[in-house]
Specification:
Strand 3, helix 6 and strand 4 form a beta-alpha-beta unit. The chain has 322 residues and is of the alpha/beta class. Helix 1 crosses helix 2, helix 2 packs antiparallel against helix 3 and helix 5 packs parallel to helix 6.
Length: 322
């Protein structure tokens, strides 16, 4: 089935394809290509082109008479006319069939309550990272509840998803976000400007970042690259479209970057400060050893919503014993 089949009428009397029929045909095309969520993706691409939810359309609406809604939405689809809207949809379906990430095609991705800009050059944030953000938010809220604005540092921030979740869910938090990739820092800048301009964005290496904050940070959170060199991701979208800088953590075990993050966190954290760092399920034990070797205590592994060991939490001890 080719993308041109989206336009093929079922009979001579059918006329132009309705939006719903085109979406159904697109879902079949995507399913045949192995796309994990073909119906959802086909619908999302149509809504992106039309700039409105499909449930607002009458049953027989076509791409010609279902133009973009005048909603003022920044994420509305391409400004095209009539048949061009269908052509734009068909082109996006073909690109998705070739396994370009949906988020790259629509230019947006959801994270917790946020709708963030997405694009090539920055890692597409995954749902499992939402629980990592929650652990950092909980730690920051505990500081705020004690009457002090929490200072939070997000190392390897990528699109700034975690930093923005903290900044928007913990009022008064002072959030710093660090990223080394020029492409990712550009995307992070767009997201910060749109959602929380008070976030301090820093272009630099997580291993040496923010020396002026040594001993003054309440929470360090990170989703660093951690994939080992021989563990090539199975998902085509990840393997062929995610930046290697955001995937592979270095070293035989993929933990060179996480080790550097833990070492930096140990210097940044104040007594009682909390480290939260994502890792792969198979790395939980090794990561706990790394964290303990840097003097952090109360080391524990957190699980994601699927029950997989997904992140480490640890505390900077207080030398005074308080």
């Amino acid at each position: 089935m080719a993308a041109d089949d989206l336009a093929a009428p079922r009979s001579a009397e059918d006329g132009p394809p309705t939006v719903r029929r085109a979406v159904a045909a697109a879902a079949e095309l995507l399913a045949a290509a192995g796309v994990p969520s073909p119906q959802v993706d086909a619908r999302a691409l149509a809504e992106h082109v039309l700039g409105r939810p499909l449930y607002l359309l009458p049953p027989g609406a076509t791409f010609t008479d279902a133009g973009p809604a005048d909603t003022g939405r920044a994420d509305a689809g391409p400004a095209v006319e009539g048949g061009e809207r269908f052509a734009a949809f068909a082109a996006l379906v073909e690109r998705r069939r070739r396994r370009e990430p949906l988020q790259h095609l629509t230019g947006q991705m959801a994270f917790r309550h946020l709708l963030l800009a997405a694009g090539p050059g920055a890692f597409v944030v995954r749902p499992e990272t939402e629980v990592v953000a929650q652990a950092a938010i909980d730690a920051a809220r505990a500081v705020a509840a004690a009457g002090r604005p929490p200072v939070v540092v997000d190392l390897c921030t990528g699109s700034a998803a975690i930093a923005l979740a903290v900044a928007t869910e913990v009022p008064g938090a002072v959030v710093h976000a660090v990223e080394i990739s020029p492409a990712a820092i550009a995307l992070a800048g767009r997201n910060v400007a749109a959602h929380a301009p008070q976030v301090h964005l820093h272009h630099g290496d997580a291993a040496t970042a923010l020396p002026s904050l040594d001993g003054a940070v309440d929470v360090v959170v990170a989703n660093p690259p951690y994939v080992p060199p021989d563990a090539v991701p199975r998902e085509v979208e990840v393997r062929e479209h995610e930046p290697e800088l955001a995937l592979y953590g270095g070293g035989d075990d993929g933990l060179d970057v996480p080790r550097a993050v833990v070492a930096r966190a140990a210097r940044l954290l104040r007594p009682g400060g909390v480290l939260v760092m994502e890792h792969a399920e198979v790395q939980a034990g090794a990561v706990r050893e790394v964290v303990g070797a840097h003097g952090l205590t109360q080391v524990r592994t957190g699980r994601d919503l699927a029950g997989r060991e997904r992140y480490v939490v640890a505390v900077q001890p207080d030398p005074s014993g308080q």
